[in-house]
Design brief:
Elements lengths: L3 H24 L2 E2 L1 H21 L3 H5 L24 H20 L3 H18 L6 H19 L19 E2 L2 H21 L3 H4 L3 H7 L10 H5 L1 H23 L4 H18 L5 H8 L6 H37 L1
Antiparallel strand pairs: 1-2
Helix pairs in contact: 2-4, 2-6, 2-13, 4-5, 5-6, 6-7, 6-13, 7-11, 11-12, 12-13
Length: about 325
Amino acid sequence: MSNPAAHRSWLSRLVEVPAGRLNSVLLRPQRLDSWILLRSGVGTLVVFWAMILLPDLNDLYGPTSIVPSQGPRPAQLSIFRWWSGDVAVGVVVGLAVLGGLALIVGVAVRLAAPVAFVTVTSLMASSPLMLNGGDDVLRLLLLFLALYALIAPATGLNTPLSGLGVAQPPRGPPWGLAVIRLQIVAMYVVTVMDTMEGSPWLGGTATVRALYLQSMRRFWIPDFIITSSLAHNLMTWGTLVIEVSLPILLVNRKTRRWGIVLGLGFHALLGYAMRLGLFPATVGVAYLAFLSAEDASAVIAWVRRQLGRVKRTQPADQVILTGTDTHHAG
């Protein structure tokens, strides 16, 4: 006869091993240096995104907007569902800027993150015509930051960038970073699946079709890239290879740094060549979630050293200028 206790022991071990690993990866408190970098980066994006809206507020949200009847759909979160009008739009934009600034400097982050998410989501829901992929990524980053700030038992979420490596390091469960990593990896997987269904990608002409449009070009591109069929195929298939490689490189800790460098370079080239809004910058900020605490601290230390060099050289330059001015005056 089988022993029920033995079966229970075997089943418990089967469950406990992955549960223990999951607890170690997602729930065990760790340093959150990269979360602080990500928080400040997302705050900068929010401020910049909101400021870009200012010249076009009447066109997007006023009574004579492009689509006067546009507004949040029934399932969408939006302040404008309960409060609308010019004053409401102005207040929401102002709160978005304040929330972004608070995220940058590290003030009342547990309140600022939800405020930034709700205000930006409200503005996006009421003007869907202006949105692109970068706006979707920004909204998701704000959602994950807000959820983590509200419910995570973390300490030091208000740590300013200047405090990393100097004050007590922030600590908390790393699941807030893990969900953002998963989202970015899933973004590449879905993109590859969609592109493989299109004949322009398989035919090697997808990228050049976009570059043919003058309205899509941002900066100068050599003519041979536009006219050469070899360049067309290299760019199209090279894009597919990169988008397939990035999830593999980013998931593996040993190759993650290579994935970060490749991904940042790839999106920087896209941002140079094409008008993609804030998409390249938003994805670049999301890559901060892949940095280890040590890498994040190293980045901050490098920036601190560069600023220190600038401060040390500045007085010398002023002395030289002052002496020169005095000589000429005499």
